[in-house]
């Protein structure tokens, strides 16, 4: 099972990237884990024309190769002004169902406060209609993010006074979410194989959602 983590903050050295690193270090049950930090990639603002994805300075082809070979995906977005990252929404509009359709995604919202629900709701509502990613029922909201996930040594959690009770709870919840995502990835890999050989008459007419 190949796991791809995409952190979508527009800032370098972001809390979203910190969370991504923690998730990557906690995902040993996957055979391979990769992390893409979108702010460090060169992606054009997509204009609806496929040729615009592949201009001379674009990293799209390299990113899409990783999207094609993944079995499961984690999308991490900061909450700014109650919305998901524009970098992430641009990437999702560029992505095609032929490459990422029917693959499971775990949504993660990161906020330095107590909100964080709006990006999850926004992505569930309108981010997957055409690319046909499947958001699993579980999601993560990492609130007050600057205060947690700052110590990586899991073996010392019971004895480290710097790890608060809330920090321990979110780490345990992350473990559960990764466990769930792994099993969705295994089940949906079998589903994709079935759909490839069991096609519907003229299904090409329905490449876009309603």
Automatic annotation (TrEMBL):
Residues 1-144 form the NADPH-dependent FMN reductase-like domain. The keyword Flavoprotein applies. SUPFAM superfamilies: Flavoproteins. Keywords: Flavoprotein, FMN. GO terms for molecular function: FMN binding; oxidoreductase activity. GO terms for cellular component: cytosol. Transmembrane segments: none annotated. InterPro entries: Flavoprotein-like_sf (IPR029039), FMN_Rdtase-like_dom (IPR005025), NAD(P)H-dep_reductase (IPR050712). This is NAD(P)H-dependent oxidoreductase. It comes from Colwellia demingiae.
